[in-house]
Amino acid sequence: MGAFGHYLSGHFATFRLEFWSLFVGGVANGFLYGMIAVGYTLVYGVLRLINFAHSEIFMSGGFAGYFVMKALIGNSVPSGAATVFLIIVGIVVGGTAGALVATLLERVAYRPLRRRNAPKLAYLISAIGASYFLFNLAGKEFGRYSISMPQPYINHPVFHIFGAAVQLYYVVIFIAGVVMLFALDRVVATTKLGRSIRAVAQDAETASLMGVNIDRTIALTFIVGGALGGAAGFLFGLGTGVVYTMGFVPALKAFTAAVLGGIGNLRGAMIGGLLLGVVESLSVVFVQAAYIDVIAFGILVAVLLFRPTGILGERLGRAA
Amino acid sequence: MQTFLRNPHLRRFGISFLVMELVALMTGPPGSTQTPTAGFRGSFFEASSFYGLFRTQRWVVFLALAVVVFAIWSGWLTQGSVIRTTTSKALTYPRAVTQRKPVRWSLLGVALIVALLLPRIVDDAFWHSAMTEQIGVFVLLATGLNVVVGFAGLLDLGYVAFYAIGAYTTAWITGSLPTPAPFHGHFDPFVAIPVAIVIVMVAGILLGAPTLRLRGDYLAIVTLGFGEIVTIFANNLYGITGGSQGSGPIPHPVLHVGPLHYVWSLKPVPYYYLLLVFLVIFLIAFSLLEHSRIGRAWTAIREDEVAAESVGINPLKYKVMAFAIGASTAGFAGVVTASQSNNVFPSSFTLQSSINILVLVIFGGMGSIFGVVVGAIIIQVAYSYLLHTPPQGYQSADLYMYLGALLVLMMIFRPSGLIPSRRRQREMVLSKAGEGHMDEVLTGDTP
Fold first, then answer.
1. CATH 1.10.3470 segments of chain B
2. How far away is chain B from the Cα of A47, in angstroms, using its nearest Cα?
3. Residues whose CB is less than 8 angstroms from the CB of residue A164 and which lie 6 or more positions away in sequence, other chains included
4. Is the CB of residue A305 less than 8 Å away from at least one CB of chain B?
């Protein structure tokens, strides 16, 4: 007990010291997880299946963002209005690439199976195949090493919160995350598109009898989820660089977040993402960095076993 | 404009064109981190001669191929049913012949003799190691995964973890890990076979018992994470596994039974025969299992879990059993790989290999032992051939790109695999005659 108590008290001391800076990083990661997780949850809502290839949507957003940043920034050091402009362009381009890949994915890997009413296992295998195809194609075309993205700003602390510096990169993620998740929430809750998404999620057959075009709704759901995933890919790449395998780990964690919040539940996915990001970030104090991925996975298994409906519960199609 | 775009001929041509240009990109030269557009430029605009007729660019060549594909596709749409009925009529007699028991057994005997003589027939150092490390081991792994995915219908994406556990157990038993061997002994790898199989089965039960209650898609993700975690631990537990440096040298197995005395060495061919002996044992065991009470229970669970439960089958029990049996095969393959390659590295057990094994099973035909063996041999031979004489622009990692595309194509066009299992073939015939439904695990409601 003595040695272990010493171990714990030592770690708690660092925990108190580092809490706020870890917390800030965790929230930033959490917003990214949330943005990816809503993609899983939306697709799960309308198709009742896990989109295994969502990680590649994320990756495509990262690469598209990288190319546009490289073309626009070059060797200059932008600041002020140029920074804001570049970030918005990056998010839009990343989101467009994500939406494009998501559409292609739905057309090629899912729709033919949907036509013959294939069982779930077939969708899963097809999605795994598509995911492998996409990221290895990216590896072939763009090389198999990580590339750091040209920075549209100088990453300095913007302000301090309880003594912890909040970098500009984090501020960008906070603002982008809040705006996009709020917009998504409103779109699903109030617009015609959102209403048809919710209708298909509740009961696809009845929805089609009520005049909802199911094919179109599913395609649009993939586009919306893909756009957020792609934008998250750009924001992630801004901080850590892009590489063809970049999608795997964040997507696995975002899936964990979606399950944690209750899959099919939009707000659940956002909350799950934030929670997972913070928990994971704070656990750095207690375990070696190499085992961080194990923690997220442990949470996933624990949630699936003990509360498979997640924190907020599966709420397919109810108003967010 | 809308009606023009919806023209079916134009649509078909557009799809053929896009697919062929994608093939152009896939087979083209690779890009790199410094020049990410080089791959695209090289794939589409590189000068190329059109079969010696005139000089042109690559994309034109593939445009021509797209026209060919379009022609074949259109021809298939008009003549396809005729072609299909004539071929199936022509094949009725050969099929009936191969269904006969004596023919079947003699064909299997011929296959076994060919397998025995193969190192003599293909007398080449590269192919000797390929037929052991790439073909033999992977056929064994695929037959093992076939029990899990094909028989019981459980999608296991972390299969390679059991392979890793088997290999690390061998390293542990033979005293090649930083952690001391049990009973301070340095055992022979042959001792490791039963130990590894038992440990891997226990690992399969420990992972399976809680997670096999989950729905299929959740199970896939959990097993995927399990595979990753095993690699993370193998990579980081320096004191136990040796970390990324891998294990120390693992001794080769020694056979010493009565007058028989044989010492394996670095040469692959003796390992090929070792694998072959065990492969035959596993194949016989699995085909007996398929038609046993357990095998029928697996089929019942796969097709309809609720119905199976209502007739008194305990789904969890049989699922865990399938998991453990599949795992034991991987454990054995791990023992052979570890002692043959002389050491164990965490980098040999990636998610990529799990998917690779899954592709072998899907391509051959889930649940069809014969199909899986044939499919695995075809893919692994192609892989080894590409490794041996890589075409211009091919990198060995590109294989996974082709395998991914193959998975999607199989799911779209032939979900029951190259050689569907006999049960499934019968179901197909019956459903065409209007009696009963197709097996719904992969094919769904085919029109």
1. 127-393
2. 13
3. A20, A21, A23, A24
4. yes
